[in-house]
Write a structure and sequence with these properties.
Blueprint lengths: L1 H12 L4 E11 L8 E5 L4 E3 L4 H17 L3 E7 L1 H6 L6 E10 L4 H15 L4 E6 L13 E5 L4 E3 L4 H6 L10 E4 L8 E6 L4 E5 L3 H12 L3 E6 L15 E4 L16 E5 L4 H11 L6 E4 L3 H13 L4 H4 L2 E2 L11 H20 L11
Parallel strand pairs: 11-12, 11-14, 12-13, 14-15, 15-16
Antiparallel strand pairs: 1-2, 1-5, 2-3, 4-5, 6-7, 6-10, 7-8, 9-10
Length: 362
Amino acid sequence: MTAIWKAAAEQFEQVQDFVVATILGVRGSSPRHVGTRFLVKKDGGTVGTIGGGLFESQVQEFALHALNTGTSHRAHFSFQGKDAQSVDMICGGEADVLIEFISADDIKKQEIFRKVLEIKKERASGYFFTTLQTNPGSTGGAINHLLLDGAGKKWGGFSGEESALEAMPAQRLLKPAQLLDVSDLSSPVFLEWLHPTGTVYIFGAGHVGICVAHLAAYVDFKVVVLDDRSEFACIEKCPDADEIIVLDDYESALSKLQINEDCYLVIVTRGHAHDKTVLAQCLNTPAAYIGMIGSRRKTQLIFELLMKQGFSRESIERVHAPIGLPIGGETPQEIAVSIIAQMIQIRNKKDSPLTTKSVCMG
């Protein structure tokens, strides 16, 4: 999604109007989730995808119409039969999409969009509100935004924003994107929670660790690489890492880390003893994912030793070991692919269901 905001900034710089299409809600199966964006340029070029096929083609037609008329639109799509199959909605489905016309002269939106890009690049957090027209199918009317960064600083705004802020759910109930019913407003407000999509801590900067770091950055994890060897834990070896930590030793590998439910722990050190030492510390965290490299025989031996030290079987069963999805990988690159695929699988389950209230479909 960072590519969308980057493309928007480029369109502003080139003084070109553009359209951003955002999925507000879905019913039935859908190839992309709520909050997915698709940018359409005046020359018909696009950035991103909302699923391809007939659905994307129709949205692009709406976007080009919006560019020609200078108006925004809230469109409702319903697919059945062959149309459903063409957009991967095999059992039929519906989608509600905001087609937002953006004028290159809109200084306020330019500032907001650039700040969103900055938040994304810095892997910071924030809250992005969008006002909507009352009903799907309506045309015209201003689309306004309010952006709050993690410190509470505001950009933009709209009438009734105080009520929208009060309608925000508690953080534990926040979804990456959802519609809010706001008592003082005639239409819902679309809220997006901007936050890093997980932090992966990679213990071990060897061949596998470096490959995992590269792929993790590519799929938008924040990447932290840790090793007790400075000649390995360095920017030359780990160019894709957001942070590199040279450990004094593996016995205190997690002592200065703030591990929460959005953290993914990958144990790929240079030896079984170090793996066991790090794993014992990882088991005491609420991390979303704990994976350890090694054969079944090696991992079983480590598990037995840890249970003798007092760790429960339930705790041990949290560990993905042998690490990664079973794709038969042998090279560091192949093993890294299997690890990242498993982490994405956990992340996607963790963030689902990405649905909105039924009001979004009209």
